[in-house]
Amino acid sequence: MIPASPTTLATRPSARSIRTLVTFVLATLLFGMLGAAPAHAALPAWPLLQKGATGNDVASLQFLLRQHGGAVTANAEFDVRTRSAVIAFQEGQGLSTDGIVGPATWTELVISVAPGSPQTDAVRALQFQLREHGYRTVATDGVFGQATTTAVEDYKARHRLTGGTTVGATTWQHLLGSPPGSGPLGTYAFVIPREDVFDGRESLLWPHHDYPASDIAVDIGTPAYAITAGTARLNGGLNDSCGLGVAIDGDDGVRYQYCHLDSRAVGDGTRVTPGQLIARTGNTGNSTGPHLHFGIFRQGNSVCPQQMLIALYDGLAPPSPWTLPESGCTS
């Protein structure tokens, strides 16, 4: 055997050094994976507003325009004056002057606000959004006081948002883009404004009187929201035990039934999304007082909705409707 030269011996790596190098590389990769920021769910889309639109989103738009110096009346109607103010704002920001409020315009319009912020019109815009999401005790007075702070804290906790009580661009995007009442995942939404649950949170756990379902005491005219995405189907009738009803054939393969309605806001076959207004509650049909009868049917069988409702009320991801029990609905 030819002996190795001094140069060869000096440069040849030992088995120990190779193991050390491999260990270092693996540790570096593992540290990188553990230290990487967790992936976040996609943000909801900004609403697209243009001439003819109405509602709280338009009111918030108008207050934000006013905060930026726009001469516009906050009447919740996207009228000619509002369109002119939008175009003037877009021109000032170097944006496309099409008079349509989309992602690029919203990004420049929204203003970070926090408790005590002096931007009263921007705070009013925030307050209109909070009311849209069920925080009806919040006044639209432009004062970022305790009531507004409490609502912001609750909303941000429900949607897993960070940043304390400051309302920045991400929170604005959630407020403007998420369906009213939607939970952190946006897949399911609570069925009425939370503050309208007449008997309080614990009443959502009460059993139905004879079969799996839930009776939620509410005033006549309370908004009823689609619990999930699907296709609406009108059923029942004034002389039917359900009264005026709406069923949602959910994209999750489960049917959701709303009964005793006062009016319906969707047509037969309408596609709905979580948190979309579908009806107003009432006292029609076989009913002893104003309430919303809510039922879940899985492959034609009634299942207990209580745990799903309480999770959505609490702003948590609900259990799959496919795991809900068919009996024992008391808890």
From TrEMBL:
Residues 54-109, 121-175 form the Peptidoglycan binding-like domain. SUPFAM superfamilies: Duplicated hybrid motif, PGBD-like. It comes from the Bacteria. Residues 214-305 form the M23ase beta-sheet core domain. It holds the Pfam family Peptidase_M23. This is Peptidoglycan-binding protein.
